[in-house]
Amino acid sequence: MNTLLKTIKELNLTAFFITLLLPLLILVPIHFIMQPSMLLAERFFPGSWWIEIMVLTIYSVWLGQIMVKTGNIGNIRIKYWLFFSVVFFGQFILGLTVNDKFLMTGDLHLPIPALIVGAPIYRGGGFFMPILLLSTLAIAGPGWCSHLCYIGAWDNLAARNKKRPQKSFSRKQTIIIRYLMLALVAVTAAALNYFGVSVSIAFVIALAFGLVGVFIMLVFSRKRGYMTHCTTYCPIGGVTTLLGKLYPLRVKIDQNSCTSCGICSTECRYDALTPIDVKSGSAGWNCTLCGDCLTSCHAGSIRFSFFGSNKNAWVIYISIIVGLHAGFLALARL
């Protein structure tokens, strides 16, 4: 009893309630609205949907408490982000080799984020994934890229091979390239639709695009230490960065306590904390709200600001992210 009371006293109540309620608010309505159910437990064992939701809710609360108390945000983030990606691709492989119930619809789709933009333009319809992305951006902002993207986890892992990042491109070049890639995907998809190119040829083109992305991770991200795929090649990264500026959360740097040591710059794999950014007091254009900079700053000068307030900003945000992460474990599949 004493141990239980001690545990309750140590709970961060803000994180507790957000991470408890968010998975429930996401999963329960979706289970009843979407038929057949999108929950794997219900697909294989009818009537067991509530068990999966309960397990994921407990997991959400547990992970939320860890994240608000950890002294190493980046280390934990990498692990749960990679865990989500492994679950995502694991279901993809099982859906292809074992049972198509592991796939969302039973139909094959390539696991390439660019297709969130390209596929609806090519097909002239099918806007479920763009709507899902926009809904996620409304809730989590650009954090989709650094916490919830199934491909980004692998680019991050490749970049972590090098302790100190070395730039491949200037920030201006990065911005130009990433939006040229977005335009290229959109124009190519529109052209394929206009000329009536077959699904087989479109599939090969999309597959080639994805394989080039893998090559960029293995060569450029791994050797340079920056997430080159996510910050330059992936068109969805451009969408989330742009629309993420509408999100009310910001990274702020207290100039009075900042020592300009530069550690945060070497920790940021998105090139969002250059010395110029640090002097300006806020993160740069590429910031995805990953949170790694918070624990990297020995002076404690870096804070998250929600609607202009620093109070509980990180706790609220990471609780939202963790709740979404738990929901995505149940719903994110091809």
- Portion of residues in beta strands equals under 5%
* Unreliably modeled segments: none
Shape: globular
Number of helices: 17
From the alpha-carbon coordinates, what is the Rg to the nearest angstrom?
Answer: 20 Å
Summarize the amount of helix as a percent range: 55-70%
Order of helices and strands: HHHHHHHHHHHHHEHHHEH
Largest sheet: 2 strands, antiparallel
Tell me the total number of β-strands.
2
Would you give an account of this structure?
With 334 residues, the chain is mainly alpha-helical. The protein has a domain of 92 residues. It contains 17 helices and 2 strands. A two-stranded antiparallel ribbon has the order 1-2. The longest helix has 26 residues. It is globular, with a radius of gyration of 20 Å. The mean pLDDT is 91.
Secondary-structure blueprint of this entry?
Elements: H1 2-10, H2 13-33, H3 40-44, H4 49-69, H5 73-97, H6 115-123, H7 128-140, H8 143-148, H9 152-159, H10 171-194, H11 199-224, H12 228-233, H13 235-244, E1 249-253, H14 263-267, H15 275-280, H16 292-296, E2 302-306, H17 313-331
Antiparallel strand pairs: 1-2
Helix pairs in contact: 2-4, 2-17, 4-17, 5-9, 6-10, 9-11, 10-13
